[in-house]
Known about the structure:
single chain; alpha+beta; six-stranded mixed β-sheet; 247 residues
Amino acid sequence: MHQLKYIIFFVFTFNSFEVINATNTYFDLSEDKIEIQTDFIGKEIIIFGILEEGKEIILSIKGPIKNSKIQKKERIFGFWFNTKQITYNNIPSTFYIASSKKVEDILPTSTIIKEELSFNLILENKISNRNFISDASQKIWKNNFVRLKQNKNLFRKYEIKNINNKLFQTRVFFPSNSIPGKYTVNIYQIKNNLITGKDEKFIIIEKSGIGSKIYNFAHNHSAAYGLFTILFAVISGLIAATLFRRY
């Protein structure tokens, strides 16, 4: 009987502890859906929420997970060839981050790696395929990968605006080269170098109109789409040749 009481007390205490320490951070999005049309030049979304006293905030946005390849050209006999390449597996195609302070100042490195909250550490513990053996230049490859992503505005840092120590706000811009798919938005509350709360929402980016039909056809029927593009190119070439002969 006494053992049963202790078990009940332990379960109740443990569950209470989990509820207290797994609080959600309230936040919302100005929009949760972006439509890509032929004239799409990008879209800005506002993210806002409650700022709790004594806690820091980290916001992360990660696009659809993809395998990403980076190549290196070398000059051989006067010509440039892609001689080396690395493919990093399961990398977010888009990665935006914002924080009330530097992420490195409010979380330990182990947590940053686990939650993937740093450009420089996003490739840690990722499986990669490469066509060369040397490990000496791995850091250079990783830095170049991040640099290329940043140049395309697919990896980017944003600011969190503090509004009267009660609210936070961030404006995030999705460029025209954003790929369709589900984008995960996470908000973290941090206190004393620990994550005390976390919440998650999603942004859907999708093509609309005729572009949507072509995109879906290309992805769902890739072989037929490839054949169609070849036939279209051949027919276009024949028509152009005929017209030029007439003139």
